[in-house]
Amino acid sequence: MILIYKNLLPVYFVLTCAFLPCIAQTRNTLSTGSSNRLSISLTNTMGVTTSADAASNVDIDNEAVLILDPESEIQDNFNSDGEGLSGDFVVSPNGASYNITGLQAKNNYIIGDGSYFKSTMKSNVTDPTKPIKGEAFAGLNHNMTLTVDQTNSSFTQAFSQDF
Question: Secondary structure of the chain in the HEC alphabet?
């Protein structure tokens, strides 16, 4: 009798479990986001430069002195006619662009008394077989740079969990 019960126990277990409902849970999450960053800078530099290139039998003396008059006007601002900086941000399938209005740079450099730029070359014939040649330069340089940096990024994060 115990042997019959022992053989029927697995059959009973399979039959009762087969008809019980099975419950499962799934949790899904989806996150998306984007960010846009725009950085604008406008810089001005004014200075002097000297350069020289000559054979060994040429002496070069380069000098450059720049004195800006206190009345010089150097203005870089993000405000044109009091309206401020504005722009249109345009996004297309091929990329994005930003059309800027309102940037203004006004520079009136007045070179003051005592400014000078001088280059002299003199031969020192230590070796008469060498040619006497050279180049010398002393001058003023000015550079204005507008830099627009634009970064667009987006993300999508998906997570699924079954339990």
Answer: CHHHHHHHHHHHHHHHHHCCCCCCCEEEEEEEEEEEEEEEEEEEEEEEEEEEEECCCEEEEEEEECCECCCCEEEEECCCCCCCCEEEEEEECCEEEEEEECCEEEEECCECCCCEEEEEEEECCCCCCCCCCEEEEEEEEEEEEEEEEEEEEEEEEEEEEEC
Dump pLDDT digits (tens) for 59-105. 999 999 999 999 988 777 666 566 667 777 777 777 777 777 777 77
Q: Which residue has the higher pLDDT, 118 or 155?
A: 118
Please give the structure tokens belonging to residue 69.
Answer: 């008059």
Look-up: residue for tokens 């997570």? Answer: 159
Q: Is the pTM of this model over 0.70?
A: no
Bridge-partner residues for 39, per DSSP? 149
**Amino acid making up residue 19:** F
- Which residues neighbour 115 within 8 Å (Cβ) at sequence distance 6 or greater? 65, 66, 67
Q: What is the C-alpha to C-alpha distance for residues 66 and 16, in angstroms, rounded to an integer?
A: 100
